[in-house]
Amino acid sequence: MKKSKRIYWAAGAIVIIFIIAAYITSGAAEVETVTAGKGTIQRTVVENGIVDAKAAHDLYTDAGGKVISLPVEVGQMVQKGQVIAALDNTEIALQISSTQSQLSQVKAAVLSQQASLSGIGTELAAAEKHFVRIEQLFKAGGASQADYDNASFAVEKLQKSFDELSASLSYARQQEKSLEDALRIAQDSNNKLTIRSPIEGKLMYLNCEEGQVLMPGAQVAGVAVSGELEVRADILSDDIAEVAEGQNVLVTAPVLGDTVLTGQVIKVYPQAEEKMSALGVIQRRVPVIISLEEGGILKPGFEVRVEINTVKKDNVLILPRGSIKVSQNNQKEILVVRNNKTETRIVETGVYDSNNIEIISGVKEGEQVVKDAGSSISAGTRVKIIQ
Questions:
Q1: Helices 90-140/145-191 angle, 10° precision
Q2: Three-state SS for 36?
Q3: pLDDT tens for residues 286-328?
Q4: Coil/strand/helix, residue 66
Q5: What do you get for the CA distance between the two ends of the chain, in Å?
Q6: Whole-angstrom Cα distance, residue 239 to residue 195?
Q7: Does 89 have pLDDT greater than 90?
Q8: Which stretch of DSSP H or E encloses residue 118?
Q9: What is the pTM of this model?
């Protein structure tokens, strides 16, 4: 009998609980909530990029000329110093020939004047000794005035010839140096007509063919270290503020299938460039260079999709961005459901991504928050939570 009474009392208590619950929820507004919990905030900048060779060298010709030899083919592996193209420039050849001829003449003149100057120097030294001896005799009365004058005149005449020849020799030597400099410059220009690979690598392209005449500064070819790749992506100027060197990057492409490559931002250019979008809109974009840890089957010229991780915070309290609204006094507010009623909380927020936002203060982990801050639910409303 006692056991039956306990069963009746238990059943009655359950009924009472249901009655109370029904009372509480009767007329309550249904509301969808989210649970404040720990998570990761990750913000990215996504853009298309073009694969390029990392250690690429574009080869140019300093002096124009006619292409007379192309001993290599595109795609061929070349050694450092190997000839890529040879040009011929008749003006440089004529300049070298003319300068060499003039230099030979000047060198001969220098040698001749040096010999003459040496001879005059010997004569001058002898004349000066003779004058000293005559001068001593003249003072002692052993030489006439005429002997003295003739000895003095001979010294003056030889000294004048010596000085004039010395000046002529100095000028000739200056000419010799100028011609040697001109010849060296011309020969250097001629040497640059033979274009060689600065590195060991693969010939990526040739911009000329035999018989073609190239202007000075023309791009001739490109050589790159095989297998070392990087990506250039032009980022919108509105997004570039968050992009910095050292940030991690995910790289995908249709040719890669499900494979995702990793890279790192290694250079952000200091200046934006005007680019035309596919829709014909002029945009300001900043070039960014991304290194690839490995290129897989990618090759220079392939288009890829890059995802630059600009902001990341792990294990922080987060809520959906849509659960927060800004009040009239510019405070950020949420609606917390507590004891089946809503109450307003002012929260302090941190970083955010496209979906979630970091909550620094104002709500605790595990609390239920109205998911849609734009709903008509107000503070103090009795609500029924729907999951």
A1: 160
A2: coil
A3: 999 998 878 778 888 899 999 999 888 899 999 999 999 988 8
A4: strand
A5: 43
A6: 42
A7: yes
A8: helix 90-140
A9: 0.52
